[in-house]
Amino acid sequence: MTWENPTNETMKEILETAQTIAVVGLSANPERTSHQIAKIMQENGYRIIPVNPTLDEVLGEKAYPSLAAIPDQVDIINVFRRPEHLPQIAKGAALTDCKVFWAQQGVVNEEAYHYLKEQGFKVIMDRCIKVVHSVLVKK
To answer: pTM for this structure?
Structure first.
């Protein structure tokens, strides 16, 4: 069985109700896509929580070495890592209270998808959260 994204209505609801996005692989380099997308989402009112073990702070927010280290509620886990890293990240995601896992455009891993679905997650892959937000969420 292959993976499938939720409907546009579901993605819109996720984005309209979410307040906090943990960004796995967020870079401090403003030239990197992860930084640019996270900054735009922050400007749209979301609290960004960087997840990167090599950083202390990004976009004015404390960075955490892993999803498990985040002490606050997370509504969306947004991943900017290569597809082969997704199964490990998915296992970390399953240890949190978050139930939305969003892999950026070009990032798909069926093993991670099926594991997360078994854990009760809404899984979105190969979609840019900023693009989906700009198309579906009218503010």
So the answer is: 0.97
